[in-house]
Amino acid sequence: MGPGASRGFSMGPGGSGGVSMGPGGSPGGEGSPGGSLAVRIGEGRALRALGGWELVRALLVLRLCAHPWLVDNAETLLRGSRRVLPLPLWRGLLALSLFGQFAVGRGQRAVRGVAERLRGRGLRPMLALPLEGEGPEGEGESWFEANRGAALQCVGLAAGAGPEPAMQLKVTALLSHRLCIPNFPGLSPPENRHLGGALRRLDDVIKAAVAGGVRVLVDAELSHLNPALTCVTLGLMWRHNRQGALPWVWNTYQAYLQDAEGRLRADSALCAEVGVAFGAKLVRGAYLEHERARAAAGGRQPPTWGSPELTSASFRRCLDWLLPLLPLPRSRLGVVVATHNEASVLHTARRMEELSLPRSGGPVCFAQLLGMGDHISLALGELGFQVYKSVPVGPPEVTVPYLARRAAENRGALGGARRERELLGAELRRRLRPWQ
Known about the structure:
single chain, alpha/beta, 8 strands, about 50% helix, globular
């Protein structure tokens, strides 16, 4: 899809129009195939689309991820196993476990294979580069330039993965996170040169993405970096989101931060004022322990909400403010609801029905991680909603340490996925005992 094509996320046939409402206000009425969305998710019916090996691997990996010690020490264990095992055996074991469950290689064939499998189930890939932080000491600018090449390669892989492609990008893969902390008027000549190079790198990636029809969702990071990252992202929006109904560049908002709703409102208003399409990916947040530890070290109150319930309330407030804006005349807003929380998914679907927002071809998408929340993703896909799975792309040597860090940051979500494991186990037992 090039720049002249339709810029709305769409799922193709089957699912345009609103979601029918079942008893109690749940999306999808009793007469809909397979029952309501709430029933499909609650009973895990959509997991029947998974293959037998996929079920076994998911159950095994999610159970391992429920052990705090394994999660906390995953990166150390991976480094140790890499030293003692031959590379082919190490890669093979990872393909059967962590890497195979949550990621895909950087080759075109591997990405296309995952994309075809997802699209066959009503889903689509959102490629994510496992790049973050600073490079090895001494590499400096060359590390960021290498990341530019990797990001451009990811654009090409996403563009070849099917209609309405999308990818995620961390700004700090192309711009030093140290530069996101000081005041810009005080930058040294080397810092100014790096800033100029970083902005050119980011612009090169976005220009290639627009040419290939790829949406770029800029990831949020630690809260003390986000003001600078948002400033850069809004600049990219100004350059590339002035044409078309929906944006090419999207920003991410973490509902576990107490200022999330205010920042979301302010950025949306600014984009509307200057005539720029605005895209928001709404997440709960992945750096909770880092945020609390950093605040404690500085003798400050953490910027996050104090409980999961308050975070969920923040997430819902952001949704309830955004969604009614979407059907307004001349609205140029898009929303990606990136969550594994069943209540948030059902609330979004219910509000979409009330606001007559279409399931496909419209401004609302859902997103979950590859290998997690499949009972939610598949149920949404079966009913024609637009659903993306975030797919880290790269070799195991790069991707697996990244996954280990994400697992440590999301230990609460992984450890709390008990119901998902129960649904996977129930589906596996159903297949092993079909007479019951």
